[in-house]
Amino acid sequence: MPIYAYKCDACGHAKDVLQKISDAPLTDCPACGAPKFSKQLTAPGFQLKGTGWYATDFKGGGATGAAASTAAASDAAAPSSAESSGGSAGASESASAAPATGCGSSCACH
After folding, report:
1. How far is CA 19 from its chain centroid?
2. Order of strands across the sheet with 14-18?
3. CA torsion, points 44, 50, 54, 56, in degrees to nearest 10?
4. How far apart are CA 59 and CA 49, in angstroms?
């Protein structure tokens, strides 16, 4: 059953009431008795948890859940497989590549 927020326009008394949707709205204020008790417009008091909802899966605009982890795993695997396959090549290929130490173009290694 939903909880509705009511407020009296006459005295300002506010109260949250647990009611069925089919129940008639309350009209008489329990504090002052005036027929000025009305429903207030409030935000819903629940939160959708888990996957499959806009806030968890689509809000960021990027890949989600399993798709994001698969993409990250394939990106991480690509450089390491290229390095391991190039390691058995001759010394001429490694000498033509720029060194990672940053020795500059004036040395004999390039």
Report:
1. 33
2. 14-18, 3-8, 37-39
3. 120
4. 14
pLDDT tens-place string over residues 34-76: 999 999 988 876 777 777 777 767 777 655 555 555 544 445 5
> Is pLDDT at 7 greater than 90 in this prediction?
yes
Number of Cβ within a 10 Å radius of residue 7? 15
DSSP 42: -
* Short-list 35, 37, 31, CA closest to 4: 37
Please give the share of the chain, as a percent, with pLDDT higher than 90.
33
Are the CB atoms for 43 and 56 separated by under 8 Å?
A: no
Exposure class string for 26-40: b at 16+ Cβ within 10 A, else e: beebeeeeeeebeee
**E-state strands within the chain:** 3-8, 14-18, 37-39
DSSP 68-80: HHHHHHHHHHHHH
Return the higher-pLDDT residue of 74 and 29. 29
